[in-house]
Design goal:
With 384 residues, the chain is an alpha+beta fold. It is built from nine helices and 20 strands. The strands form six sheets. It has a six-stranded mixed β-sheet, sandwiched between helices. Strands 9, 13, 15, 16 and 17 form a five-stranded antiparallel β-sheet that branches. Strands 4-5-20 form a three-stranded antiparallel β-sheet. A hairpin with a 3-residue loop joins strand 11 and strand 12. Bound molecules: zinc ion.
């Protein structure tokens, strides 16, 4: 069995399920088993690594390979967590291999990419090719829910010339995606018994008026500025909650809003932008609360990533013959890294169509190729 396959099998067998906001119970949750495995791997490889506490039971682990005489540093970033295993039809941590595929939660998203990066790093250490770049391998937590890991990584000031973020792209290069901000918007009122509703103020009626305006704002975004690759920004209301019983005039109502951003938009300004619009609308003469997003990620802007796109593209061509550079609809850690000044693209083995599925799998041949491509990216001289 190749070292890449052994690594992937080990990683899939170690549960690292993101609780995704649910109460944590059961041994499969959080990333610590994978973190411990990685710490052991880096220790045996004799590369220095740093553990970055992010939340209880959740640590980034960041290893560093220094190449003699290197002029550039590439950051490889990959998340340790997976989505939950509810409804899976195969043993989620069985890591069974059948007909060139490895099955299990995270096999595709994105322990495959992690195995490829680990094997490529080990080969760099072993072979020490002349002219190779320095490599920082950052294995982060909580990518599937609130991106705490990558935010901690950039907060600590990681520095590199460019970055490759592992996600299943079928060995293509992703250089653009939308960002996202999740907002809460609340109205308040005055509760009273429903036999005399005129004595109270219904927070739900107030929200009704707000919703019409929110819908108009969503339409305005849809018809507004459009990114050439990604199209226009978007907004939708996904949940509403209000009232305590049918015979009480409700004093509180809130909605949850999903806002998709295009390059150039600041996720942390989306609440003020919405509030400004709503306040200009007639009929909304009461207080609205809309704090800064509780979760956010900027869009991935293709501008600035040209150099890494061409270097990675060359490495892909040498291994598989050709490649495409594409935008995708889903978000990744790459935009947060790019936002910190490190041009970033997304690349990895596996098809996003197999990510998060009930019988998740990845092609082992593709994992091998990804590892070869990453090795070439880091080891081939810049001028080549
Ligand atoms: Zn992923």
């Amino acid at each position: 069995m190749s070292s890449t396959t052994t690594l992937l099998r080990d990683l899939v067998a170690l549960p690292s399920v993101n609780p995704m906001g649910r109460a944590v119970s059961g041994p499969e949750f959080l990333e610590q088993r994978v973190t411990a495995y990685l710490a052991d791997f880096f220790r045996k490889l004799d590369v220095p690594c740093e553990r970055q506490p992010v939340a209880p039971g959740r640590e980034n682990i960041v290893a560093r390979f220094d190449s003699a005489g290197a002029t550039h540093t590439v950051l490889w970033e990959v998340h340790q967590d997976t989505v939950p295993v509810d409804g899976m039809t195969i043993p989620p941590f069985g890591a069974a291999i059948d007909n060139g595929r490895l099955y299990g939660r995270g096999a595709c998203d994105i322990k495959s990419g992690m195995a490829a990066m680990l094997a490529a790093l080990a080969r760099l250490v072993r072979e020490g090719p002349r002219g190779a770049m320095n490599v920082i391998l950052a294995c982060t937590v909580d990518e599937e829910y609130t991106f705490l890991g990558v935010q901690e990584l950039v907060k600590r000031g990681v520095r590199a010339d460019f970055a490759v973020v592992a996600e299943p792209t079928q060995l293509q290069i992703v250089n653009a995606h939308k960002g996202v901000a999740r907002l809460l918007l609340a109205t308040s009122g005055r509760a009273c018994h429903s036999s005399r509703p005129e004595q109270g103020i219904s927070a739900i009626y107030r929200m009704g008026r707000v919703l019409g305006a929110v819908e108009r704002f969503a339409e305005k975004l849809r018809l507004g500025r459009s990114d050439p690759l990604l199209g226009p920004a978007a907004l939708s209301v996904g949940r509403i909650e209000g009232g305590s019983s049918v015979n009480t005039v409700p004093d509180a109502c809130r909605i949850e809003i999903d806002r998709r951003l295009i390059p150039g938009e600041n996720p942390l300004a989306t609440n003020d932008e919405l509030l400004d619009y709503l306040r200009e609308q007639g009929g909304i003469d009461f207080e609205l609360t809309c704090p800064r997003p509780w979760m956010s990620m900027p869009a991935l802007d293709p501008r600035g990533s040209e150099q890494i796109v061409s270097r990675l593209g060359r490495a892909i061509n040498r291994v598989v013959g050709s490649h495409r550079v594409i935008p995708v609809p889903y978000g990744t850690d790459a935009s947060t890294i790019a936002g910190a000044g490190i041009p970033a693209v997304v690349f990895g083995p596996g098809d996003i169509a197999q990510a998060h599925t009930k019988d998740e799998w990845v092609s082992l041949e593709e994992v091998e190729k990804a590892s070869e491509i990453l090795y070439r990216l880091a080891s081939e001289p810049l001028a080549a």
